[in-house]
Amino acid sequence: MDFPVYWRAIKARLDGELARSIPGYFKDLAAGRIEPIREILADGKRIRGCLVCLVSEALGGRIEDAIPRAVAIECIHAASLIHDDYVDEDARRRNRPATWTVEGPRKAVLLGDLIFAVAIEKMTEISRWDGLAVAQAIATVASGAYQEAIDPSDLARGVTEGRYRPELYERIIHLKTGALFGAAAKVGAVAAGASPAMRTLAFEWGARVGEAYQIADDLEEVLTLGARPENSPVRLSRLAPLFLCFSRETNFHASHLAAGREADFREWFRNARPLLETRMRHKIAARLDMAAKALGDVPKTRDTRMLRAAPSAIVRMGVDLTPISGR
User: Fold this and answer.
1) What is the pLDDT of residues 92-109, one digit of tens each?
2) pLDDT exceeding 90 applies to what percent of the chain?
3) Domain over 3-326 is classified CATH 1.20.1440.230
4) Max CA-CA distance within the chain?
5) Pick from 59, 60, 51, 41: which is nearest to 6 by CA?
């Protein structure tokens, strides 16, 4: 079985388990208040939940022990998207209106908080180690989001104060995405009863896969910038750490995103895009290599073979990895 086949089977199971779990998870809510949560948790690729199951089964665990943990991880991811959409002013999510546009900003944020809290509660009920792993992941993801620029004025202040430097991008992709992928892999190892050393290896593997996935997602953003002449200041500011990461090679400066400098940004981007794309693809490949090295001490068996093959397949879900010349 290859990873896409495995993923499809696990996704179908997680979709059903999430739908069944919602009433029990949110039993303190009135019936009419649960429907928004059903919509929030509907759909999604379930990649993080799939990693829980994949790691657990690869290390000899039972799928029945992995599924509840995978459900909690998917809840955490969904809650983070509620907050992200509001902060980033994204009006749609998964072909539906974003939660904050339907519920209003205040209720959307509170719903996200509620889902976070319930996920921690459910994981703590499984074990102290599971609860600690997801609590740490939530704190780390929030830390990454907090360090991103919200708008051009915040970006300008950050650059002036030295908060936004070329190396910030590497930190943000770990905090925002790598940490939750790593936590998913770690709790999969916990579900399998793996040793502390193996749990650490699982986290490192998952974190590198998550970082590669985030770079691929950002690359998708870069590839669509040229197709949209009107890009929101929030969207561009969100990509500023990426632009700064390659500023020495592309001559990017934060002032390119200042009000009234749209023409300057478009000219810079037109010249910089080919190099940006090349460098980002190199970064994706480097993260995949790091993920492979993280598994260096894991025995090579039939069960662990998919762990080695999965990262490239997961990243391909985010972006087309064909070379530039082939696009």
Assistant:
1) 887 888 999 999 999 999
2) 54
3) no
4) 58
5) 51
